[in-house]
Please model this.
Amino acid sequence: MRLFLISFFILLTACADRLAVPVSDGPLAGGDEQTILVASLRDSMGTDWFTGDRAETLSFLDVDVAIPPERDTGQLRLHRHANVDPAKYFTITDRQDYDSRHAFSQAIQNQMKDLPRSQQDLVIYVHGYNNSFADGVFRAAQMAHDFDITGAMLHFSWPSAANSLGYTYDRDSVLYSRDGLEETLRAAADANPRRIILIGHSLGTMLVMETLRQIEIKSPGWADRTLGGVVLISPDLDVDLFQAQARRFAELPQPFVIFVSNKDRALQLSAMINGYRPRLGGLESAEELSEFPLTLIDVSEFAEGLGPQHFTVGTSPALIKILGAGSELQSAFDEDRAARSGLLPGTVITAQRATQVILSPLLLTQ
Model:
């Protein structure tokens, strides 16, 4: 009960005017700017930006996000209103709307056309539960900046209520958004990037898996042929459900990576309200997933402080350094699966087709 009250308090206090979108005139000296492509299934409800209501059709746009100079790696301060200090908070500085899927695909191409083919990667980020439009866009920008992503970053913004009491609404919105994410993935493929990396966080991982399963039924093998990797971060997904989804694939896209932590308080709360069913992101062993060719990466040792510890991958400076561009782990995943296991850092445990990697901050001292 104590854990429940602490976790619920943390989630509840994160909700103020969550739908406000902070804007500014441009990045400050010492800051940076990231362009984020966005496909949104949120309704604007007559406002300039997007709410938590569900739209019938996708909106396509891109936004320029100013990265504040006064921040540490992994830090993303939550805004409370539209008027914020751009030295400390992320802000949007510009916006471009696109009137069709074709125009959006062309915009993806244009973002990468001046890069060498080896850098023309498209990363698609699907946010989790209790996220506003700005929350998801700013998280995508923070990851693009901190992980030094050289290609393009696309954010799929599904209609979360951005309210800690909106868990059921958000789960329904996940199912509502499957067709929208499929259309976004197909638009991304039309842009012909070198590879597409699909990332889901929290409840967004359910949307990722449901959408890929849906595509697999209609176009067997599409995900494996089209995607250059799938990453599930802190998945708020029932283990049995994930197994059923994964069994629908002839082959899972590779690499297929799941980040887990036994210190994720948000997932502990989710397990409690879901009848004490274990969540995929809380697994401590790859044994239950041994039939699948995937990699389970345990980041429990990087959890610090009293927060939910629900996005350690993107908030821990030490872990970002281990996972970032040019890192040993990144290089290992650039190899084919047969060579990968011998290159992975940390403690590596094999369970039939699955691999478990336990990472530690001590890797930075080696």
Summary: Residues 63 and 95 are 4 Å apart (CA to CA). Residues 2-365 form a domain with the Rossmann fold fold (CATH 3.40.50.1820). The two ends are 41 Å apart (CA to CA). Residues 204-218 form the longest helix (15 residues).
